[in-house]
Amino acid sequence: MHEEYAEEVLRLAVKTAPRRSLTSLKRICLHVASQHVAALDMTALLELPTSIIKDLLPHLNINDLNRLQPALNGKGISTYSAWIAILREIKGAHCVVDLHTEEESKQETVDTLFQLIFYGFKCRGIAKQFSNVNITSLLLVMAKYVKHFYLRPSIFLQSFTNEQRPLLTILEKSVRCVYVKHHIDVAKRESRYALYVLHRILDHGEAKDLIIYDQDPVILAWILHARGSRHANHQRHIKSMHGEKASCISHHTNPTATGGEASASLDPETTVEDEGSLITPCKRGKFDFVSGEQEERMPKSPIDPELLCQTFTPSAGAWTKSCPQGQIHSLQIRECGRNSLGVLIPFLPTWLCLRSLTLQSCSIFSELDVLTLARSLKQLSDTSSSSLTDLTVGVLPHAALMETLLAACSNLRSLSVEIHPVAENLGLQQTKVVDSTVLSGAVLELPLEKLSVKEPQVLTNLHSIISVVKNSPNLTSLYISGIRLSTASSHCELLSSVSESSHHLRRLNLEDINLSDCLPAILSLLRNCILEGNKRVVVQGLPTS
Fold first, then answer.
1. Please, what is the angle between helix 135-143 and helix 102-118, to 10°?
2. pLDDT at 403 > cutoff 70
3. Which of 316-320, 385-389, 448-452 is the least confident region?
4. How far is CA 253 from CA 116, 204, 223, 283, 315, in A?
5. Collapsing DSSP states into helix, strand and coil, what is residue 354?
6. Per residue in 500-509, pLDDT tens?
7. Cβ contact 376:343 at 8 Å
């Protein structure tokens, strides 16, 4: 499959390549040398003048550049410009490249180029990369360095079940983050290849981070099925009663349910109190068929991951063991609607390995949804084995819910929120009462180290932000953007609170904020906080005079 693609790309490159005459002996030598680097003596090549080597680098393909990099670095020659040149060749000369180190540029180039070649894109600059190397060999070399894998429905995924199976084995060891940016319809037969790859990388591989853009809650339900100690304990209980053939029944809530309904579906005994009762690692339970009302309430999860392994693994005939369940430490849902939130919430109380959670919605979350989320997060936070320290949520309907989330997750080290106050809340934010069921047992002093608050230049007040700053004496990084006050108010109170409470502050960014009357407060803040140099301080809105 990939061999045919490579031949087509090379034929297309020959037809569309502009005629360029090699007008100098040096250009001719560089061009020929770049085509036969593998045949050149490495020692002789490295003994060339540094200027000649640097002129040769832009002509090399990714395979030769990767092979030469360690020796070049040992000679004090950086390959940064060569990696950037490849990146611009495949993305376009005018693409914005915000990469500052050799390793960053190499990683971005390898990740990008691997996806383009594997999925069969015919972009400019692709043909050069396998003009003198077998495409399968090139993919195998690149796969060792790929850390970010982008999953998309494609006929090329079928190759992972046959000729490219060794490639998948390498990706299982190298990939650290999986992106699901395109819709995967689990009801379609061809989607089983995408689900199989997702299962192999997440559960059999080393990937710990998952980023989902798809608004369809079914794929999220499929990924999360049977994750968490509650589900492992449940499966152990069922197996003890009904034997090894019993299957774990899904505990998902209705994806069309509201946040309140999702919360109500939580088993009151789901909170884990004894760390010794946990099963590690968890194993995925098999999907079972249920009837009647239960079946209608659950998202359909038609394909068992273990069944996929039995189908696509060569040793399927002798398959006896259960598939392992990989731990997802970081989850980002970039387009999190109410349906996705309803699927996620029941898993949070027992998702003990979750360290970072990002929920970004295209619309504003309802207050009920946020409170339901907070209750679920509080159950997780109350568990001594909880790992969650990083939370990002957007978009909140008012700033008081930021306090609610912090009260629910008292162990957070980093919080980032985006707030779009809706009209009916504009006059209520200062007196908004945080949900008492969430605040029960809340601590006064928070361990928060990083805080980011964004508002869209809508008239608001500082009550909630100041309250959080005063109760976070360990803040080292603070980013506030877009807060707009009435003409009778000033940001001086916020700056004074930061100056008095945040003595460990290292980074401060105040953006799109009118600070024209706050110069004395700014000077006081700079005297009291040990900010790390000018590059760590960004203040917009200072008086011009």
1. 140
2. yes
3. 316-320
4. 37, 27, 14, 21, 35
5. coil
6. 998 899 999 9
7. no
Taking the whole predicted model, whether its pTM rises above 0.70 is answered as yes
pLDDT interval class at 242 (50, 70, 90): very low
> Could you tell me which of 303, 324, 99 has the C-alpha nearest to residue 189?
303
Compute φ and ψ for 150, nearest 5 degrees: -100, 115
Residue 133 sits at φ, ψ, to 5 deg, of -150, 145
Q: How confident is the model at residue 537 (pLDDT cuts 50, 70, 90)?
A: low
Q: Identify the bridge partners of residue 357 per DSSP, sorted by sequence position.
A: 331, 391
Task: Report the run of H or E that residue 180 belongs to, with start and end.
Answer: strand 177-180
The token duo for 438 is 């969430």
Give the integer Cα–Cα distance in Å for 149 and 118. Answer: 11
Q: Contact at 8 Å (CB) between 359 and 343? A: no
Q: How far is 106 from 94, CA to CA, in rounded Å?
A: 19
C-alpha span between 513 and 453 (Å, rounded)? 12
Looking at residue 423, its pLDDT comes to 56
Are 479 and 505 spatial neighbours (Cβ–Cβ below 8 Å)?
no
If you average pLDDT over every residue of the chain, what do you get?
79
Give the whole-angstrom CA distance, residue 300 versus residue 296: 9
Which DSSP state fits 25? H
